[in-house]
Amino acid sequence: MELPSLEIYDLQDEIHLPGSLIRRIEQAAQRALPHVLEQQIFEKSAIADLECIEVSIVSDEVIAQVHVDFMDIAGATDVITFEHGEIILSAQTAKLYAGEYGVSLERELMLYVIHGLLHLAGYEDESPEDREVMEKVQFALLEQVWQES
């Protein structure tokens, strides 16, 4: 199976993210893709048919608007994933949680990318049981593909 291409775009101005960081996350995400495909829940999940996955890093304001427009839920969130291969991440939420969890912003953003990829592979996190399974897989993948510099 051919892997989809993956591109990350920094579309926000609130938090400075150097191009080198974006490329590093992109490379780690490419390393994660084969593992995500192996972890598919369904024989044919959304990720199997994608040619390209686009990850957009946006502000809390933008992700909050997407959250309302597409999910009818008010407020910012960390990650929103669309089955057509678009993953939207909030840089500000990542910074907040990175501080809260004592990890780097870069690691938190990479976790969000993996989370979005797993949604494309059929994982859900609405129930506590599903969330536990998804978190176990995403943290294992994060350890495999992300190294702090």
Question: Can you name the CATH architecture?
Answer: 3-Layer(aba) Sandwich
What spatial order of strands do you see in the largest sheet? 1-2-4-3
Number of domains: 1
Q: What is the CA-atom radius of gyration, in angstroms?
A: 14 Å
Average pLDDT, to the nearest integer? 92
Summary keywords:
single chain; 149 residues; alpha/beta; Collagenase (Catalytic Domain); four-stranded mixed beta sheet; 5 helices; globular
Give an overview of the whole structure:
This protein has a single domain, classed as Collagenase (Catalytic Domain) (3-Layer(aba) Sandwich), CATH 3.40.390.30. Helix content is 52%, strand content 15%. The chain is built from 5 helices and 4 strands; from the N terminus they run βαβαββααα. It has helices spanning 19-38, 60-71, 91-101, 105-120, 128-145; strands at 5-10, 52-58, 79-82, 86-90. A hairpin with a 3-residue loop joins strand 3 (79-82) and strand 4 (86-90). It starts with a strand and ends with a helix. 34% of the residues are buried. The mean pLDDT is 92.
In terms of topology, how is this protein built?
Layout: E1 5-10, H1 19-38, E2 52-58, H2 60-71, E3 79-82, E4 86-90, H3 91-101, H4 105-120, H5 128-145
Parallel strand pairs: 1-2, 2-4
Antiparallel strand pairs: 3-4
Helix pairs in contact: 1-4, 1-5, 3-4, 4-5
Summarize the structure.
By secondary structure, the protein is of the alpha/beta class. It has five helices and four strands, in the order E-H-E-H-E-E-H-H-H. The chain has one domain: Metalloproteases ("zincins"), catalytic domain (Collagenase (Catalytic Domain), 3-Layer(aba) Sandwich).
